[in-house]
């Protein structure tokens, strides 16, 4: 490894600090008679989803919140799922509702997300929350991009006037990521699978955020020297190991700062889910 290797942005350590702050806010809410509650709905038996859901529930419990996992069979009908969401919308002990994606084939993800009360949409995917984010007045920021912003802030990466390139244009990460960076004064380029000459774009980036789901897609020769590289990808390789979308070893030799996989963005996503849930509960006190 070269002596000029990038400093690591440790998502695990930052997530612990965020979770401690959340636990303090939960204690304050409990003193006022409110215990924040998150309900996660898991449809079907996707093994990765099971792991994510378990981790989310555990994080909630550690912060002193109520967490409830509702597991439904893969053949659950759209009508039954919507009826359950309707019940959760009207349950005052539930402050956050999260339907774990992806849903089994035959279920309409868009309709399911739209059925969630926007004030309980702690994932920040509801069309009204997406619109509020677009207009610069977010109610809930989607957890992964929100976590990335927190990491950049903690690492004291200057965003004003910086060239930021986001690779991957999903509704869950890429698009909201671009909006959040733009809101902080960055000049943002949003690349997708049809981008011509991706390398020309990534080489301009002072801040490069990669969220594609293709292991080792971004290599060191695609990175501007000294850039901050945020790797959102989590891919399981054939040998069972986890890898990001960035080729870590070659990137680390060029970048100024970089997130590892695992231990980077992943822990922050869950930490910000807790932040959104506690915020949803706190809003009840101000209304």
Automatic annotation (TrEMBL):
Name the Gene Ontology molecular function terms of this record: methenyltetrahydrofolate cyclohydrolase activity; methylenetetrahydrofolate dehydrogenase (NADP+) activity
User: Which reactions is this enzyme annotated as catalysing?
Assistant: (6R)-5,10-methylene-5,6,7,8-tetrahydrofolate + NADP(+) = (6R)-5,10-methenyltetrahydrofolate + NADPH; (6R)-5,10-methenyltetrahydrofolate + H2O = (6R)-10-formyltetrahydrofolate + H(+)
Q: NADP: is it a keyword of this entry? A: yes
Instruction: Check the record and name the InterPro entries matching this protein.
Output: Aminoacid_DH-like_N_sf, NAD(P)-bd_dom_sf, THF_DH/CycHdrlase, THF_DH/CycHdrlase_cat_dom, THF_DH/CycHdrlase_CS, THF_DH/CycHdrlase_NAD-bd_dom
Where, by residue number, does the polypeptide cross the bilayer?
A: none
Q: Which residues form the Tetrahydrofolate dehydrogenase/cyclohydrolase NAD(P)-binding domain?
A: 142-283
Q: What binding partners and quaternary form does the record give?
A: Homodimer.
From the Swiss-Prot or TrEMBL record, give the protein name.
Bifunctional protein FolD
């Amino acid at each position: 490894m070269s002596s000029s290797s990038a400093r690591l942005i440790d998502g695990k350590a930052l997530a612990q600090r965020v979770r401690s702050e959340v636990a303090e806010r939960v204690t304050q809410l409990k003193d006022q008679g409110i215990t924040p509650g998150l309900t996660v709905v898991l449809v079907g038996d996707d093994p990765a989803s099971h792991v994510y859901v378990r981790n989310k529930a555990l994080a909630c419990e550690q912060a002193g919140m109520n967490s409830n996992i509702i597991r439904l069979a893969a053949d659950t009908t759209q009508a039954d799922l919507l009826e359950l969401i309707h019940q959760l919308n009207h349950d005052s002990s539930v402050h956050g509702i999260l339907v774990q994606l992806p849903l089994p084939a035959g279920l309409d993800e868009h309709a399911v997300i739209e059925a969630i009360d926007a004030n309980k949409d702690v994932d920040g995917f509801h069309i009204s929350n997406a619109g509020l984010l677009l207009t610069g007045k977010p109610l809930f920021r989607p957890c992964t991009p929100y976590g990335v912003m927190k990491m950049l802030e903690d690492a004291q990466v200057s965003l004003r006037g910086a060239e930021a390139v986001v690779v991957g244009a999903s509704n869950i990460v890429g698009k909201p990521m671009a909006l959040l960076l733009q809101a902080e004064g960055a000049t943002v380029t949003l690349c997708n699978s049809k981008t011509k000459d991706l390398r020309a774009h990534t080489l301009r980036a002072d801040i490069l955020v990669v969220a594609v789901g293709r292991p080792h897609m971004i290599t060191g020769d695609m990175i501007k020297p000294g850039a901050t590289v945020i790797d959102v990808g989590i891919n399981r390789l054939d040998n069972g190991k986890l890898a990001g979308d960035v080729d870590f070893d070659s990137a680390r030799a060029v970048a100024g700062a970089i997130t590892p996989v695992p231990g980077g963005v992943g822990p922050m996503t869950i930490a910000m889910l807790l932040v959104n849930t506690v915020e949803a509960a706190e809003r009840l006190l101000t209304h």
